[in-house]
């Protein structure tokens, strides 16, 4: 969708690690799985289709196994998927280490404890910790499960991708899956007038600030 200079790429790569924390996902592995998903959408080769797994948990588990195989280079990847992705092996190694994941988890737990003691946080908020620990996989599961199961279609993409409008604002535009599969290189996941992609104006702002360069305007 867009390109950026190497310094900005490193900046956002590091920001990805800091923001994802315990649920860090490798941009390289994520990019490859995403390309596979588009190429094989809702077929038995799709790395995360809800139509070839029993439930959302088995889908997440199978996706995890494929992700780890791609991450550790233990799975043969087609040449068309192995290209044009950011890579910083130091951060990948750090982000995927158990020391990092447990460390971030302890940091989250400390924040909740301090909020409970000093900010009068209700004890029920501690039940959010598992979601906090696994935010990346949970976000992916919602998008890939709901985005290919529930909602409506603007386009016939020869798959089961859907637009889940009522939940989309929580996923920052990513639940316009039917639109995205029709126009995968569009920076705006919305298509109809009432479909608002909240990430689109952010991308436009980054372009105006010359931080990124949009490759193809839509």
UniProtKB/TrEMBL annotation:
List, alphabetically, the InterPro entries matched: Acyl-CoA_DS, FA_desaturase_dom
Where does the record place the Fatty acid desaturase domain?
23-190
Arranged from A to Z, the UniProt key words for this protein are: Fatty acid biosynthesis, Fatty acid metabolism, Iron, Lipid biosynthesis, Lipid metabolism, Membrane, Oxidoreductase, Transmembrane, Transmembrane helix
The cross-references to Pfam families, in alphabetical order and at most eight, read: FA_desaturase
Membrane spanning residue stretches: 98-119, 125-145
Topology in the lipid bilayer is annotated as: Multi-pass membrane protein
State the compartments where it is located: Membrane
Q: Which family does it belong to?
A: Belongs to the fatty acid desaturase type 2 family.
Entry-linked PANTHER family: ACYL-COA DESATURASE (PTHR11351), DESATURASE 1, ISOFORM A-RELATED (PTHR11351:SF31)
Q: What is this protein called?
A: Fatty acid desaturase
């Amino acid at each position: 969708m867009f390109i950026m200079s190497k310094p900005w790429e490193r900046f956002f790569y590091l920001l990805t690690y800091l923001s994802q924390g315990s649920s860090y996902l490798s941009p390289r592995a994520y990019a490859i799985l995403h390309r596979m998903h588009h190429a094989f959408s809702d077929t038995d080769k799709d790395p995360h289709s809800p139509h070839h797994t029993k439930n959302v948990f088995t889908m997440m588990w199978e996706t995890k196994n494929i992700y780890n195989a791609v991450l550790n280079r233990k799975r043969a990847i087609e040449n068309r998927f192995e290209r044009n992705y950011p890579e910083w092996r130091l951060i990948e190694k750090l982000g995927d280490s158990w020391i990092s994941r447990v460390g971030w988890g302890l940091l989250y737990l400390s924040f909740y404890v301090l909020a409970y003691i000093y900010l009068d946080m209700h004890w029920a908020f501690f039940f959010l910790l598992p979601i906090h620990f696994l935010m990346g996989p949970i976000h992916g599961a919602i998008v890939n499960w709901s985005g290919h199961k529930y909602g409506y279609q603007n386009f016939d993409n020869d798959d089961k991708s859907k637009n889940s409008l009522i939940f989309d604002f929580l996923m920052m535009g990513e639940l316009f899956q039917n639109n995205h599969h029709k126009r995968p290189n569009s920076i705006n996941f919305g298509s109809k007038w009432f479909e608002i992609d909240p990430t689109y104006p952010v991308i436009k702002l980054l372009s105006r600030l010359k931080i990124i360069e949009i490759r193809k305007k839509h």
